[in-house]
Design goal:
The complex is a heterotrimer of chains A (172), B (346) and C (520). With 172 residues, chain A is α+β, with helices and mostly antiparallel strands. Chain A is built from 5 helices and 5 strands; from the N terminus they run ααβαββαββα. Classes of the chains: A alpha+beta (172), B mainly alpha (346), C alpha+beta (520). The structure holds iron/sulfur cluster (3 copies) and FE2/S2 (inorganic) cluster.
C-alpha cells in the first residue's frame, strides 16, 4: 500500500508508569512547546487592510464590462449571461443603436439597461463563461461589504463599464 | 491636625490608590491575556487600538458601558443584579491585607505599603475569598438558565473542595513562619532565597499552586465556564457591564492569587541575594524598589497562569474531584504532618 | 403499394410525394434550407443531399442480383443528390446519414457559413434559426474562410420587415413567396453568385399584406419583423396556440408571450384555414391583448366587487322593460348561445343584435379584394353569432339603431371589443344611454358613465369556439392566465340568470357545449 500510515498503535493494556501518571513531566514539556511558539515562531496573521493575500489568477470578484480595442462597448445585449445566470440576477434591456451612440457600439444592438443584483449574485462566473463577446468579466475586486445602503448593490452598467483607456473604478 | 484624622486620610489614600492600581491592572490583563494567547498560537491578537493595542481595554470598557443592559424576563431581578456586584466586591476585599512593598516615609511618618497589616491577614483573605462563591452561585441561580445553574453548582463544589487543600497547604507555611500576618511571612523569608517557602515547602507549593488554579477558575480547572459544554457557565445570561464586572473580578482574583503565591512562597518583595536595607538607600527609594519587585513577581505569575491556560486542556469533572479529594488532600496532610514533625524536632 | 427504403426503413407510399416530406412523416429528418412545402422547389441550397440508389437488376434474367449474404445489391448514384427535388420511385434506396452524406453536409454548411456573419448575439432569429441548429448538428466549429466576408447595411425594406443582407444564405424562399404566394413582383434576386442580393426591385415597394411570412420562412435572420426587433430573445418566450381574431378567417396562430405580455403572433399550419400563412394586419394586432386591459369591475364609475356589480346589473335588467343589446362577434359561440337564451328567457327583448359592421349586415363571406386570407368581415365569429340567433326579433332595433339612439332604451347591454374601440366613432352616442351595462376586456371611456361595467376575459385567456367565414368551427384554449378578477362573459350571464330567478346552471364551458349540442 502506498499510503503512509503514521498512526502509532498503543498497547492499551500497558500500565502507565508512575512518572507518566504524575503528569508533571508531560505538563512541563507542553509548557515548553507553547513557550517555543510564544518566543520563536512568527505570527501568520495577515494584517488585512494594509497587507493583502495575493488573489488567484482565476479569482472571481465583482463584474467588469469591457470595451474593445476601439473603445466601444463590447456587450451587445445578447442575453446569454442572463440566460445562464443561475441566480437570475442579471437584468438587461436591449435597444437599437441609432444616431450619435453609433460609434460607441460595434453592433446594431446594445444594452440600454444592464443591471446585476449583487446581493443575489453567487459569483459563479457563468456569465463570464457564457458571454460570446468577451464583454463581462469577474475581476479582482472583492471588497463589497457595506452596512447602510442596499441600493449600492444594484450594479448598473455605468459602474461596471470600463471608462475609455482607464481601468474600471471599483468602488461600488 | 489630629493624629487619627491623618491616619484615616492616609488609609483612604492608600485604599484609593490600591483599588485604582488593581482595577487598571485587571483591565490590562484582559489585553495581556488576549495578546499572549495570540502569541502562543502564532497570531497577533488585538493590536489596532493605540500602539500595540494598548487602548484596547479602554475600547472594551466603552463598549461594555454602551451596550444595552438586558435582564432576562424570567430571571430573579434582585439577585441577578446582586451576583456580579457581590463578586467584584469580594474580589477586591482581600487586597486590604496584601502588602505591595516595604514601608515609606511620608511627612515624617512611617507608612506601610499595605492598607492594614492584620495579624491574621492570610486567614482574613482566605475567609473573604471563600465568600466569593456566593457571587457565582447567586448569579448562576438567578439567571434562571440551566447552563448558568450547572456552572454555578460546579463552581461552588470545586471551590469548596479545593479550599480545604489550600488551607492545609497554607497551614504548613504558618507553622514555619509562626505568624498569620502577611508582612511577617514575607519577613520570615527575607534572609536568603533558600528561605523562600517554595524551597522549604516544595510539596506544599505544588499543592497550593494547583489549588489556587482551581480556586480562580482558570484552565485546566475552568469547569464553571466550560464553553464547550455550558456556553460560558454561570454568566451565560450576563451582558454589557454586568458581564464586565464578572470578568474583571475573575482577573482580580487572578492577581490576588499571583500576589498570594509571591508573598507566601517567593519572598514577597525580597530581591534574591540583595538586602535593600543594607544598600544605604533612602527609605522611600527602597520602598519604591520593593513595590516594583513585588509587582514584577506577581506579574510573572499572572503570565504563568496565562501560559498554563493556553497549554493545558480542561479536566473532566470527575477527574477534578478525584484530584482534589484523593490526591491533593492526602498530599497536603502529609506535608503538614511532616512539617510539624520537623518543626518540632529542629 | 410502392415501396422505398430510407435508411434501412422500408416505407410504403402512394402517389407522388416529396422525398423530404415522406421522410419527415416517417420520422427521418433531411436537413434543408430552400425547400418549403408550400413553395416551388428551387434546389439551390444543397443542404438536403442524400444518396440515391436503385436495386440491381440483371438485364438478361430480370432477377435481382444478390450479394453473399443474400441481400439484394443496390447501385448508388456516383454523387449525392438533392433530396428536395428527387423524384420518388418504387424500389428506391435512400441513405441520409452515410459517411459521404455527413461529409457532404459539412462541406455545404461550410460554404453556407463562409459569408454568414457570427451575428447570433445580435440576431433575433437566434434560438429558432435553422442554420444555427444545423451548424450545431452537422457542422463544425471552425472555418477555412479567411477572406473578408461580404457586408451590407441594415435595411428597412418595408414598414414590416427589416433586412440584414449579411445573414442571407440565398435560399430564395422569400422571393419565391413574393411571386408565388403573395402574387407580387416587387422582391427578387438581383446580382449573381456570391454578390447575390435579395432586394426590392428598383422603383418598386412591397405592398402586400403577407410580408411577415417572409420573415417566418427565412431560415436565418436575414429578414426579421421590425416590430419584434430586439424585444426579447426567443428562448425567454412561452408559446401557446390559439386563433387570430382580427378577421372572419380565423387563422391558427401561435402567441409568444412572457410574463403575461404577448410579444408576437406567428402562423401555425392549419390545412383547412390558413395553411402556413397569416396576414400582417392580424399579426400586428396582438397589441390589443397587452394594452388598456381591464382587470376589475366597476359600478357607476367606481370600483366594485363582482357580486355587487352582478346584483346591480340584475336589478337594472329586472326593472327595465325595453332593453337594447349590442352583442359582439368576438365572443365565442358558447357565449353567444347563452346570451341569446338569456335575452329570450330571462330578460326578454327583441332588440338584440351583433352586427356593428357593414360586412356583418350584408352577411358578407368574401375575402377582401386581392387578399389571400383576410376577410371583409372584421369579426371572427359573425356566423357563430348568427347561428346563435343574436338577431333582432319582430320590430326589434338593430345594433346600428341602438348605437345611434341609445337613450330610447331603458337599459342597454353593450359588449365592447377591440374592433369597436378601433373604429372610434361608433360609441360616440353611448354616453347618453340610460342604465348602460358594459361587458368588456378593455378599458374605455364608457366605464365612467356606465351603470355597471364588467371585466371580461379576452379570447387569449379563455376557451370557446369560432365559426369562420367558410363555416369551419374552430375551438381555442386559453394561452394566458386571466387578468385580475376578469370573468368569462358566459359566466357573468349565467350568474345573472341565477340572480334573476331563472338559473341556467351552465357553469362550465363543457356544460354549455353539451346543453346547446355544440359537440364536446
Ligand atoms: S457570477 Fe453567476 S450568479 Fe453572478 S451574475 Fe454571473 S452568472 Fe449570475
Ligand atoms: S455581457 Fe456578454 S453575454 Fe451578457 S448580454 Fe452582453 S454580450 Fe451578451
Ligand atoms: S432573405 Fe432569408 S429567405 Fe430570403 S434568400 Fe435570404 S436567407 Fe433565404
Ligand atoms: S432544400 Fe434541397 S437544395 Fe435546398
Amino acid at each position: 500500500m502506498a499510503i503512509n500510515v503514521r498512526a502509532k498503535y498503543l498497547n492499551k493494556t500497558e500500565e502507565m508508569s508512575f512518572i507518566d501518571r504524575l503528569y508533571l513531566p508531560a505538563i512541563v514539556k507542553g509548557m515548553f512547546i507553547t513557550m517555543k511558539h510564544f518566543l520563536f515562531t512568527k505570527a501568520y496573521t495577515v494584517e488585512y487592510p494594509e497587507e493583502r493575500k495575493p488573489i488567484a489568477p482565476r479569482f472571481r470578484g465583482r463584474h467588469v464590462m469591457k470595451r474593445d480595442e476601439m473603445g466601444r462597448e463590447r456587450c451587445t445585449a445578447c442575453y446569454c449571461c442572463q440566460y445562464s445566470c443561475p441566480a437570475e440576477c442579471i437584468n438587461i434591456e436591449a435597444a437599437e443603436v441609432t444616431g450619435d451612440i453609433r460609434n460607441n457600439h460595434p453592433e446594431d444592438k446594445y444594452a440600454r439597461v444592464f443591471e446585476i443584483e449583487l446581493l443575489r449574485c453567487i459569483f459563479c462566473g457563468f456569465c463570464q463563461e457564457a458571454c460570446p463577446k468577451a464583454a463581462i468579466y469577474l475581476e479582482e475586486f472583492y471588497e463589497l461589504a457595506d452596512y447602510d445602503d442596499r441600493s449600492k448593490y444594484l450594479l448598473t452598467k455605468k459602474e461596471m463599464m470600463e471608462t475609455e483607456g482607464k481601468p474600471v473604478k471599483y468602488r461600488v | 491636625m489630629e493624629e487619627w484624622i491623618i491616619d484615616i486620610l492616609i488609609s483612604l489614600a492608600k485604599t484609593l490608590a490600591f483599588f485604582g492600581v488593581i482595577l487598571l491592572w485587571a483591565a490590562y490583563i484582559t489585553l495581556g491575556e488576549r495578546r499572549f494567547a495570540s502569541f502562543f498560537q502564532n497570531r497577533l491578537g488585538p493590536n489596532r487600538a493605540g500602539i500595540f493595542g494598548l487602548l484596547q481595554p479602554l475600547a472594551d470598557g466603552i463598549k461594555f458601558m454602551m451596550k444595552e443592559e438586558i435582564i432576562p424576563k424570567n430571571a430573579n431581578r434582585a439577585f441577578y443584579l446582586l451576583g456580579p456586584t457581590l463578586f467584584i466586591t469580594i474580589a477586591l476585599i482581600p487586597w486590604a491585607a496584601i502588602p505591595f512593598g516595604d514601608t515609606v516615609v511620608i511627612a515624617g511618618r512611617e507608612v506601610k505599603l499595605q492598607i492594614v497589616d492584620l495579624n491574621v491577614g492570610i486567614l482574613f483573605m482566605i475567609a473573604v475569598s471563600s465568600i466569593g462563591v456566593y457571587g457565582i452561585m447567586i448569579g448562576g441561580w438567578a439567571s434562571n438558565n440551566k447552563y448558568s445553574l450547572l456552572g454555578a453548582i460546579r463552581s461552588s463544589a470545586q471551590l469548596i473542595s479545593y479550599e480545604i487543600t489550600m488551607g492545609i497547604a497554607l497551614a504548613a507555611v504558618f507553622l514555619l513562619s509562626g505568624s498569620l500576618s502577611t508582612r511577617d511571612i514575607i519577613i520570615a523569608q527575607m534572609q536568603s532565597p533558600w528561605h523562600w517557602n517554595v524551597f522549604v515547602q516544595p510539596l506544599g507549593f505544588i499543592v497550593f499552586f494547583v489549588s489556587i488554579l482551581a480556586e480562580t477558575n482558570r484552565v485546566p480547572f475552568d469547569l464553571a465556564e466550560a464553553e464547550s459544554e455550558l456556553i460560558v457557565g454561570y454568566h451565560t445570561e450576563y451582558g454589557a457591564f454586568k458581564f464586565a464586572m464578572y470578568m474583571l473580578s475573575e482577573y482580580i482574583n487572578l492577581i490576588t492569587a499571583s500576589a498570594l503565591i509571591t508573598l507566601l512562597y517567593f519572598g514577597g518583595w525580597g530581591i534574591p541575594f540583595v538586602d535593600l536595607g543594607r544598600l544605604g538607600l533612602s527609605v522611600n527609594l527602597a520602598g519604591l524598589i520593593s513595590v516594583i519587585v513585588f509587582l514584577v513577581k506577581t506579574g510573572f505569575f499572572v503570565f504563568v497562569f496565562i501560559w498554563i491556560r493556553w497549554t493545558l486542556p480542561r479536566f473532566r469533572y470527575d477527574q477534578l474531584m478525584n484530584l482534589g479529594w484523593k490526591i491533593l488532600l492526602p498530599l497536603a496532610l502529609v506535608n503538614l504532618f511532616g512539617t510539624a514533625v520537623v518543626a518540632l524536632l529542629v | 403499394m410502392a415501396k422505398i427504403t430510407i435508411d434501412d426503413k422500408v416505407i410504403e407510399y402512394s402517389g407522388n410525394p416529396n422525398l423530404i416530406e415522406l421522410a419527415k412523416e416517417n420520422g427521418i429528418d433531411i436537413p434543408h434550407f430552400c425547400y418549403h412545402p408550400a413553395l416551388t422547389i428551387s434546389g439551390n441550397c444543397r443542404m438536403c443531399l442524400v444518396e440515391v440508389g436503385t436495386l440491381c437488376k440483371n438485364q438478361q434474367t430480370g432477377e435481382y442480383e444478390k450479394d453473399d449474404k443474400g441481400n439484394i445489391k443496390v447501385n448508388f448514384m456516383p454523387k449525392p443528390q438533392p433530396g428536395c427535388y428527387q423524384q420518388v420511385s418504387d424500389g428506391m434506396v435512400i441513405r441520409t446519414n452515410s459517411e459521404r452524406i455527413i461529409e457532404a453536409r459539412k462541406g455545404v454548411l461550410e460554404f453556407t457559413l463562409a459569408n454568414h456573419p457570427l451575428d447570433c448575439p445580435v440576431c433575433d432569429q437566434a434560438g429558432e434559426c435553422v442554420l444555427q441548429d444545423y451548424s450545431f448538428q452537422y457542422g463544425f466549429s471552425r472555418s477555412q474562410f479567411i477572406e473578408k466576408k461580404r457586408t451590407y447595411k441594415k435595411n428597412e425594406i418595408s414598414p414590416v420587415l427589416t433586412q440584414e443582407m449579411n445573414r442571407c444564405i440565398h435560399c430564395d424562399r422569400c422571393a419565391r413567396f413574393t411571386t408565388e404566394i403573395a402574387g407580387e413582383s416587387s422582391f427578387a434576386r438581383t446580382w449573381r453568385g456570391n454578390k447575390m442580393e435579395l432586394s426590392v426591385l428598383p422603383g418598386g415597394t412591397i405592398t402586400h399584406n403577407y410580408q411577415g411570412n417572409m420573415a417566418d420562412i427565412c431560415p436565418v435572420g436575414a429578414l426579421t419583423i421590425t416590430d419584434f426587433r430586439f424585444k426579447s430573445r426567443v428562448w425567454f418566450l412561452n408559446y401557446g396556440v390559439t386563433l387570430c381574431t382580427s378577421c372572419g378567417k380565423g387563422c391558427s396562430v401561435m402567441t409568444s408571450h412572457k410574463k403575461g405580455k404577448v410579444f408576437r403572433l406567428k402562423p401555425v399550419y392549419n390545412e383547412k384555414v390558413n395553411t402556413y400563412w397569416m396576414c400582417d394586419h392580424g399579426r400586428l394586432r396582438y397589441r390589443f391583448l397587452n394594452e388598456s386591459r381591464k382587470s376589475g369591475h366597476s359600478a357607476g364609475g367606481k370600483k366594485a366587487n363582482f357580486q355587487s356589480a352582478l346584483s346591480l346589473a340584475a336589478e337594472i335588467l329586472k326593472a327595465s322593460k325595453n332593453i337594447g343589446v349590442i352583442a359582439s362577434a368576438k365572443e365565442s359561440l358558447e357565449t353567444c348561445m347563452v346570451l341569446s337564451r338569456f335575452f329570450r328567457e330571462v330578460a326578454p327583448t327583441a332588440h338584440v343584435d351583433y352586427r356593428v359592421d357593414d360586412a356583418q349586415v350584408r352577411d358578407d363571406r368574401s375575402l377582401r379584394p386581392g387578399e389571400l386570407l383576410r376577410a371583409k368581415d372584421p369579426y371572427p365569429n359573425s356566423f357563430g353569432a348568427r347561428e346563435a340567433g343574436l338577431l333582432p326579433g319582430q320590430g326589434g332595433a338593430t345594433a346600428i339603431d341602438i348605437l345611434g339612439a341609445p337613450e330610447k332604451f331603458d337599459a342597454v347591454v353593450l359588449f365592447i371589443d377591440d374592433h369597436i374601440i378601433e373604429a372610434g366613432d361608433r360609441l360616440g352616442n353611448m354616453s347618453k344611454a340610460k342604465n348602460l351595462i358594459v361587458l368588456s376586456p378593455f378599458e374605455s371611456s364608457l366605464d365612467s358613465t356606465a351603470a355597471v361595467s364588467f371585466a371580461t376575459r379576452a379570447y387569449s385567456e379563455t376557451s370557446g369556439t369560432y365559426i369562420n367565414i367558410d363555416g369551419i368551427r374552430q375551438k381555442y384554449c386559453p394561452v394566458l392566465p386571466p387578468l385580475g378578477d376578469a370573468r368569462d362573459s358566459w359566466d357573468i350571464l349565467n350568474q345573472l340568470s341565477g340572480l334573476m330567478g331563472k338559473s341556467f346552471g351552465l357553469d362550465s364551458i363543457g356544460k354549455i357545449r353539451s346543453h346547446f349540442k355544440l359537440g364536446d
